[in-house]
Amino acid sequence: MWIFGWKGPSGFSATSTAEQVTQGVDGTGLTAIVTGASSGIGVETARVLALRGVHVVMAVRNVDAGGNVKEAILKQIPSAKIDVMQLDLSSMASVRKFASEYISSGLQLNLLINNAGIMATPFMLSQDKIELQFATNHVGHFLLTDLLLETMKKTARESNREGRIVNVASGGHLFAYREGIRFEKINDESGYNSLYAYGQSKLANILHATELARRLKEDGVNITANSLHPGGIGTNLLRHHSFIDGFISLVGKYVLKNIEQGAATTCYVALNPQVKGVTAQYFSDSNIIEPGSHAKDADLAKRLWDFSVRLTNPN
């Protein structure tokens, strides 16, 4: 696939880098939140957005690690506007605290990059008694988006610039939704499969973006919502599966993307003018692709939305 560098309609391919897909884009005056910006493709996403003039707010669980990334970016790009704020997506209390502090700061918000994620962890429950991967990858981002949406709407109106919400849904299009294992079973260890649970959480990212896009369009709001697959990347996400992680370490450099290529689709969807007005789409290798049938299921997206609202607003 990507090894051949086939270019799609956008003119980019799996070998394109984040810098290449944003070449010539002026992000001055834009403000972005990037979750999980202290490791993996989140670091490169934050760096390239800052390189293009965007004011980047790194929303990270480990503020020390985030601070180190900020210093590294400033060393390379002295003019960069970049801040670090603490956010633990597995905790709804932390999400609410982050959103409250961000809103109180008075900053605008043009771009929300829901990038952070964990993968294939052993069965654990979050502070809110939700399976950890679903809590971190979907519920936390769903709540964060909801709490910041009014700020994004206000920014879009006042700046007359399109807002963009980007969900990194790594591989979510590959996972089927099993009627026997519903999203509602998110605190049940019986029959737990860590990779399948990961897939369900990333499918949820796609469905979230799809239903959000429908609602934003219905409201006539100048904000788009899309999801994407960054591609196979040799990050530390599979550290809980030592055999797979070891295999990837051995052959990854021959078949996987590097970090610069892995962050490309995120930066393309966030900044490239080709994506203006495009919403409710799924991207891979900086091109629109057709996801699986479950990822396009409007009824499933609506049911997940209602379920997520009940989870995040239990009273």
Please tell me about this protein's structure.
With 315 residues, the chain is α/β, with parallel strands linked by helices. Helix content is 44%, strand content 12%. Helix 5 (132-159) links the parallel strand 4 (111-114) and strand 5 (163-168). Helix 6 (194-218) crosses helix 10 (298-312). The protein is globular, with a radius of gyration of 18 Å.
Global morphology: globular
Major sheet details: 8 strands, mixed
Order of helices and strands: HEHEHEHEHEHEHHHEEH
Tally the beta strands: 8
Q: What percent of the residues sit in helical stretches (DSSP H or I)?
A: 40-55%
Rg (C-alpha, Å): 18 Å
Quote the beta fraction.
5-15%
State the gist of this model.
This protein is of the alpha/beta class and 315 residues long. Helix content is 44%, strand content 12%.
